[in-house]
Amino acid sequence: MGIFDFLRKGPQGTASTAKNRLIILVQEERDRSGRGMPDYLPLLRRELLEVIRKFVNVDADAVDVKTHKDGDHDVLELSIALPDKPVAAAGRA
Amino acid sequence: MTENIVVTSGKGGVGKTTTSASLAVGLAKRGKKVAVIDFDVGLRNLDLIMGCERRVVYDFVNVIHNECTLKQALIKDKRHENLYVLAASQTRDKDALTQDGVQRVLEELAADDFDYVVCDSPAGIEKGAFLAMYFADRAIVVVNPEVSSVRDSDRILGLLASKTRRAENGGGKVQEHLLLTRYNPARVASGDMLSIADVEEILGIKVVGVIPESEGVLAASNSGVPVILDETSTAGQAYDDAVARLLGDERALRFTDVQKKGFFQRVFGS
Hints:
The complex is a heterodimer.
Chain A: H1 15-33, H2 41-53, E1 63-70, E2 73-80
Antiparallel strand pairs in A: 1-2
Chain B: E1 3-8, H1 16-29, E2 34-38, H2 46-50, H3 60-64, H4 70-73, E3 75-76, E4 83-86, H5 99-111, E5 116-120, H6 127-134, E6 138-143, H7 147-160, H8 165-169, E7 175-183, H9 185-189, H10 196-203, E8 207-212, H11 215-223, H12 234-246, H13 263-268
Parallel strand pairs in B: 1-5, 1-6, 2-4, 2-5, 6-7, 7-8
Antiparallel strand pairs in B: 3-4
Helix pairs in contact in B: 1-12
């Protein structure tokens, strides 16, 4: 740093701003895309959907599988959206 | 056993092709049999960086569409006899690549005892980029110390963990390596550029190499000689270190600190 540098620059660089913005953004985007979740979740979700479809006709995105931390342990959260009017699936009387 | 290495980044202009070329040459210099494939159909550039643009007769798309054999399309490097370039097509669009076709080419290279196949991914996350990464055993994620590049790299890391053959078939995770390019230690020191530690912290992955911003990179692409062959340039030496680390050597990072300035520079600034 030269003695005239103070004339050119503010007191703090912008790298720390970049870092703080990225840490928040990357975390948000990872949460949204479900990264860091156990590997078996997509398969679990698919198989659950198949089982549910034996009884009710639901959309492909009706089953939502998530994990989150509650204190010391991980919680597996299942949410299944049923259709407004239950329609029996084909092949099941 | 052939290893497929994808060089990818999400964002364009961060140094994927420069990295693919230098990685391929670095591996070939160490005696490995290497093919480097340009997946950027419609915007081919690897041939220019490798200095073989006048020798492209057949390309990757011709091979996939059975218009020539793989042997006819592989361009033998002038400097290394165990290094081959497979150029992208310049006239077709990205849909000319098919997953079956790519798989067939990679299997043929494996049957021909190639040690490494370096797949130079196009920017973006569309078909070409997807196919470049799909069959990867390892991935080099090229990132600049800059917000949009870091964000896109994280997206790519997510895709590597979910949209690859290994992720789908449970063949073990794609081994991910982060390569930080266009690094400017002086700007990091003055707080104007993300540091190595910042990028590692944000992405949660260690760097396998740091390539300093260097005039040598432009000079190398101007002359069609991969920068790793310019032993006088800092970028070339840093690439050589990175290749050595990929092969398991331990090497300390170089060119990541500000070089000492002379007396006048210190007094009057740079």
